[in-house]
Amino acid sequence: MSGAGDGRTHHADDGSGALRRIAPPARRFLARRRAVLARLAVWSLAEAGQAFLVGYGVAHSVDQGFLAGDTRKGLSWLAVALVAVLLGAPVIRGVFAELAGLTEPLRDSLVRRAVDRSMAQALDAPGGTDRAAVSRLTNQVEIARDSFAGLVLTLRSFVFTAAGALLGLFSLHPALVVVVLPPLLGGLALFLATLRPMAAAQRRALAADEALGDHAARARAALRDLTACGTGPETARHGADLVAGAAAASRVLAGWAAVRTAALGVAGHLPVLALLAAVPWLRGRGVTAGALLGAFTYLVQSLLPAVHTLMTALGAAGARLLVVLDRIVGPAPSPTITHGTRPKPPPPAGPPLTPLSVTDVGSTADVGLPAVAPALGGRGSSPAVADLPRPAPTRRSRLPAHGRPTAAVELRSVTLSYGVRAEPVLDSLDLCVAPGEHLAVVGPSGIGKSTLTRLVAGTLAPSGGEIRVAGRSVTGCAVADLAALRVLVPQEAYVFSGTVGDNLAYLRPDAAGADLDATVRALGLRSLVARLGGLDGSVRPDELSPAERQLIALARAYLSPAPLLLLDEATCHLDPAAEAQAEEALARRPGTLLVVAHRLSSAVRADRVLVLDGVQAVCGKHEEVLARSSLYRDLTGHWNDGSHRKA
Ligand SMILES: Nc1ncnc2c1ncn2[C@@H]1O[C@H](COP(=O)(O)OP(=O)(O)OP(=O)(O)O)[C@@H](O)[C@H]1O
User: Which residues, by range, are in coiled-coil regions (predicted)?
Assistant: First the structure.
């Protein structure tokens, strides 16, 4: 889960770093609660005494009572053992009462820290959201409190019970300690050796879980963008990778849990077996039957349950506590989101979900758009757009070595079906668009116009054939390379909260003020920009009309250095005059323009018109297509009537 750890390098260590970070605040926390700790110690001493008395009572009931023929004495010693067992209840009650004095202040302090951290991050990255904060405030704080309570209970219980039981064994016969202690210590050592790798595995599992949750939240927030840009499969693939990563992390964790179970077996059962095997040896050293029975009682009744609980609690709760505390108390991860802020290299931390170069940026900024890649000479090399005259297509053509200009867009026998058995939407389509050309795509609703733009944009892979943009195959092309080749402006234009300048320069972050001014003039945005307070004025997406949003998205595309612009009904909310101004400006821009037209005027303005008609396609100048395609004649008839705004 490499991505999961991005931006959280302090979580990537093996646990010792976390321990170092947690230790000082933990010491301070405990130092302030000495009185509670002292009261806990008193109750724990009572627990040690109870453990001591149980085995001691059983041993003496046998040796001094039943085996010596004194049944009354035997029963009296058994009564002592019974009272010791019954005393366990009030002792545990006392322990729990004191425990609250540690766990509740811990919970309050963690909540305070989690809130402080979220506030600090919100201030560091205005507009950004720290989604992990919710998890820290609820789930993780509860995990920390419960784990801490479990740890205090079991650690303390183990130490005092083991002390009581070992003291009891020693008092019965020192040889008993010699037999019991080695397997007990061996199991404990094996268990302690698993703690560090187990903590690291636990940390990776938590990080994988958070990364998955974060991905789901980002994908949900960006659903419209994902659908509009056709990057759902890519996002799903990334989600599947995260699920696989989380599963792998859980498997590693399970592997270490198995090692710990083995340690539990050694520490928990080997002492009993060792004691059984050593009975002849012990008898030879004068260990009485009562002492042996008392030793078994110590093992079965006190020591082994304490070891079992200790290992379970320290292994699971201890590792969890360390990881969770480090997340809340340790250094804050670097902010991952710059919503409403133009991304600057290096790109934001965290795995990108939809690395597109579409001009609608609002929620795609949330899902990690890549840094805008340079094209046509790279960043900073583009001249001020408005200063450029409209070059003839041939003048803008770039000639490869063999002398023929490389086509801006080339489709060779492209077929697209949305399902294995589905009728193809496009069937063996050939198309060649020259550099600098302005092509209008028309056709009835549902004929495949958006499909064509997505194919050319490289966000949809063809079922067959080949698609090249500026000579490069776009199928399987790296995202940054696609971003350098084309900009796709869909019908739903998204803008993001930020300044007007940030919105306009999103695809060309180094644009000079003069470029922005020229763009505003060329696209007819002057009154809108003035109303918003100039280039430094704020854009609030909800307060803009669909037409205003489209104008901003078009201006953003205009400024982009990409050589190919794809407009998929991107001017549908503009009135005819505004549409004409925007389209003419975009056509004057150096580069190729492919427009899905929804008005006759838009088709007439283009150098050529592509009419999609079922699986047939006709392409040529407006007059030629008018003569050759009855569908185009029908469409122009509808447009002229004004009865259908849309083809
Ligand atoms: N993701 C998809 N899965 C299955 N079928 C789809 C998908 N996207 C589009 N289609 C189908 O493919 C055909 C072409 O759709 P497309 O959106 O490309 O047409 P269009 O010409 O752009 O239509 P409109 O002008 O209404 O936007 C339609 O029948 C549509 O239902």
Answer: none
